[in-house]
Design brief:
18 strands; 2 helices; Jelly Rolls; mainly beta; 262 residues; ten-stranded antiparallel β-sheet
Amino acid sequence: MKSIKAPFYIALVLVFICMHSHAQQQDGKWITIFNGKDLTGWSPKFTGEAYGVNYRNTFQVNEGKLIASYGNYTHFDNNFGHLFYKEKLSAYRLKLQYRFVGDAVPGAPSWAFKNSGIKYHAPHPSELPVDQQLLVAVEAQILGGDGKTDRFTGNVCTAGTHVEMDDRLITQHCTNSNYPAIDDSSWVHMEIEVHGSNQIIHKINGQVVMAYSKPQYDDTDEFARALMEKGHPRIISEGYIALQAEGHPVEFKDIQLLKLSE
């Protein structure tokens, strides 16, 4: 996965953006959307499996944590998974804590090392082809460090999609933030703030690390074309959120949602 680093001007521009968005958030309140006991409100979709099948019990709940676990695997055969929240959303803030634990499952691609993410504005999982590997949606990428190389977290990655930054269409797969990925297994706070297609902001540990706009389908991608042929507009302003399972054990907790009135 190739990536570039986001320009530093983003941090300067966001001072006004954050003040403006704060004024729009007063009508809502934070709600907990993961109950810490089971997967109520969440449904899985795995490559090669029907919607609703929790392949090898990958997504689990343990001691108040939502876990992508590979204890029942001997080998990873492109069994990419996504856990979808039940509600279609457009304008909201989503926050959670994450951490990577253990080792990647044998057979996982090298890029999946300490790699997960939050997909948003995704199509409903019932619309996905059974064999689709990379969910066509924009991703707020979560990475962990390896203690050796420069890795960053809170990045934006685009599968079958593009975004715009500073009125430029960004077509490479991933654009890095400037926030170093955490090497150890300490909990990291992540938040995404989504204003339809107008503005998307990523925060790590309370710090704004990424901003962009106009998520849109890439018409060179066969799955994106299929969605547009079904009537999905090119510019994506709503959809579903999903947590990723890509081959490395990851844990989530304190998953909360604040709907925004826009």
